[in-house]
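Journal club side-thread
Mid-discussion, someone asked how the predicted structure for our own chain would compare to the paper's figures. Pasting it here so we can look after the session.
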Amino acid sequence: MLKTITFAILHFTVAFSVTYALTGSIVIGSAIALIEPAINTVAFYFHELVWKRVEQRKSDQMLTA
């Protein structure tokens, strides 16, 4: 979970910086920095869960082969 939290902080920073650089707006930069990375962080968490299952199945198949 710590990996997910640190990823979220990094993502918020990048999202704000890029949006602010493109728009010059602190408000829009802040909104994008809160919305997009929050959704992406949740997606990343579930991606990790699925990926672990895929790796586990691959490992199980190698043991039974």
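Post-session note: Helices lie at 2-23, 26-64.
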